[in-house]
Amino acid sequence: MNHIIRQLRDDERLPVVLLSLADPDQGKIQTYGASGYVYVLERGGAIVGVYVLMAQADNQVEVMNVAVDERFQGQGLGTQLVKHAIAEARRMKFAQIMIKTGSTGVAQLYVYQKCGFRMAHIVHDHFINEYEQPIFENGIQLRDQVVLVQSL
User: How confident is the model over 17-59, as pLDDT tens digits?
Assistant: First the structure.
């Protein structure tokens, strides 16, 4: 089935359900539309994937909240979203792209490294300090955040 990746239009609502798959903090999610570039992956006319690009200091952009509808996971769509984010960041003339993920997200870490990201550092206890409720992934409580970068 064919799909397209495109920027979310101003008159469209944020795909909050999808965004919630990657970040349970609704307050953070609501800021994406106002301060970031939201891209969606459509398949058969339905939005089944999403990511956000957020400009940072020093000519750097962060890929945030890469998420694919659970019914479509395992089909390479997340990898396509990450590759699209890298291409968009290059097109926008950023010097570096960054992505952050949980230390327990083995599949995500694999995809990001496969797409050319390198581990830069670990933020210990990020998910303990930044989220009110504990987050569990792959049966493990999420504590640390891994920061990965790629020069463009």
Answer: 999 988 888 888 888 877 899 999 999 889 999 999 999 988 9
Q: Measured between alpha carbons, how far is 35 from 123 in angstroms, rounded to an integer? A: 23
pLDDT digits (tens, 9 = 90+) for 101-130: 999 988 899 999 999 999 999 999 999 998
Alpha-carbon distance 38 to 23, whole Å?
Answer: 15
pTM attached to this predicted model: 0.91
What distance in Å separates the CA atoms of residue 54 and residue 62, rounded to the nearest whole number? 5
* DSSP H or E segment with residue 126: helix 126-130
Element (H or E) spanning 22, and its range? helix 16-22
What is the DSSP secondary-structure string of 62-121? EEEEEEE-GGGTTSSHHHHHHHHHHHHHHHTT-SEEEEEEETT-HHHHHHHHHTT-EEEE
User: What tokens appear for 65 in the block?
Assistant: 């909240």
